[in-house]
Amino acid sequence: MTIEQAQDFLDESEALYALLEPLAEEDWATVTQFKGWTINDVIAHLHLWNFAAGLTLRDSDGFVAFRARIGDVIKAGGSHLQFNHDWLAGVKNQQLLHQWRDLTRDIAGQFAEADPKKRVKWGGPDMSVRSSITARLMETWAHGQAVYDVLGVERIDTDRIRNIAVIGINTYGWTFVNRGLEPPANPPYVRLTAPSGDIWEWHEPSEDNRIEGEATDFCQVVTQVRNVADTGLRTTGDTAGRWMAMAQCFAGAPEDPPPPGTRFLQR
């Protein structure tokens, strides 16, 4: 594959598929710790936005029209999840799982061969093709966490989560701006231990303005699948503490991280 992130997206999706494939039909109604969504809701959400990513890659006008349909439902008092299930027209559980997997493979192939610098439309500003498929990787990993948690399976990460860490680093300023706040001028020094044991570093080294710990923990915090208090991340200085308390690497209105102790691996 030409774009490395397309393969990373596919690999993350295949790992989630392997977790879900053995489930019985009744297991799909299991409620996760994420907004009361069921396992079926999680895969439905991923499937719809994978479809949208493929649509914007090949037909920007079609994507804009599709996005407008979702907006009309919201304006009428509906929800994204309602639109999602109406769009699926009754497809769920194992049938949905296989449709989702087929689409992930198709989307990965399309993005792999596309121009990585081509601009595509999305919910906010246009983004590059490379950024678009990286965002699909991030969403798959983040929403997948709710499934791993509720099934009591500890996920074994690989260094492909560096893509997610980079999104977290790049959205430092936006996290503040999105809340109407002025970003502190000096981003914290970030030093993370990758799943492989490699050390990943960003920004100028600092003893009094820093974040350090496991890369998985950092990714969990910036995607808001864990409260920083429930991780082993160590923050030093006011800026580092403020950032990790509200970090948000995904688009949309400001959202608060889950309260401490509410997102965890259910044994």
Task: Describe this structure as you would to a colleague.
With 267 residues, this protein is of the alpha+beta class. 52% of the residues lie in helices and 8% in strands. The protein contains 10 helices and 6 strands. The chain has a 4-stranded mixed beta sheet with strand order 4-3-5-6. Strands 1-2 form a two-stranded antiparallel sheet. The model has no long low-confidence stretch (mean pLDDT 97).
Approximate strand percentage: 5-15%
Shape: globular
Number of strands: 6
Question: Can you give the mean pLDDT?
Answer: 97
Report the total helices.
10
What's the gyration radius in Å? 18 Å
Strand count, sense and closure of the main sheet? 4 strands, mixed
What is the string of helix and strand elements? HHHHHEEHHHEEEHEH
Low-confidence stretches: none
Proportion in helices:
40-55%
- How far apart are the first and last residues' alpha carbons, in Å? 38 Å
Going by helix content, strand content and strand pairing, the class is: alpha+beta
Strand order of the largest sheet: 4-3-5-6
